[in-house]
Amino acid sequence: MSLPHDLPIILVGMMGAGKTTIGRGLARALGREFLDLDHELEARCGVRIPTIFEIEGETGFRKRESAALAACVARRGIVLATGGGAVLAEANRQALKTSGIIVYLRANVDELYRRTCRDRNRPLLATPNPRATLASLLTQREPLYQEVADLIVETGAMPVPTVVKTILPLLQDCEKRL
Ligand SMILES: Nc1ncnc2c1ncn2[C@@H]1O[C@H](COP(=O)(O)OP(=O)(O)OP(=O)(O)O)[C@@H](O)[C@H]1O
Ligand SMILES: O=C(O)C1=C[C@@H](O)[C@@H](O)[C@H](O)C1
Ligand SMILES: [Mg+2]
């Protein structure tokens, strides 16, 4: 299946929303190249994300994230999975909204926690109570994800292949043109 345009398809949402997993599936189904902003950052820096946080703190990480995002959203014909905090900076939100079709993958805190609790590669969740941290980040970010979203997809009850199958016709019907 292919789309009638080559605008980047860009996935946003919380840690554990499924951006990387669903993004890969969408790219395969659409015959597009898949890019993951976190992986792009790691490739640019030569170290994993927790190491960037350790050395430069969140502020340094966000600067690098913004630069990598600006480069990625300029690409055509791709599916891009962003990092969970890519919507925090106003300039990033502008870049997202004016570059492609933005899909917000939504899930509730319990689901996000279930999906992230075994993985230690998310420095913001290295807290005494990661579930409470997720809840607080979701409250802060929900309006930002909604602000940039062209499509909002609830993923909680659906396995990964079903989420991919749900999004494909929505992308075909999306009339956003840039
Ligand atoms: N719809 C779903 N149902 C069940 N499990 C899912 C679903 N979507 C993703 N997962 C699982 O949740 C975990 C986290 O998914 P993924 O890494 O894709 O999230 P992410 O949004 O990219 O997070 P981050 O912002 O931290 O990169 C993975 O183990 C993935 O297989
Ligand atoms: O939600 C966030 O702020 C983050 C999500 C991950 O994708 C990484 O970008 C990083 O761990 C920060
Ligand atoms: Mg990811």
Automatic annotation (TrEMBL):
Its EC number is 2.7.1.71. This is Shikimate kinase. Substrate binds at residues 38, 62, 84, 141. It catalyses: shikimate + ATP = 3-phosphoshikimate + ADP + H(+). One of its GO terms (molecular function) is shikimate kinase activity. Catalyzes the specific phosphorylation of the 3-hydroxyl group of shikimic acid using ATP as a cosubstrate. It comes from Orrella dioscoreae. Belongs to the shikimate kinase family. The gene is aroK.
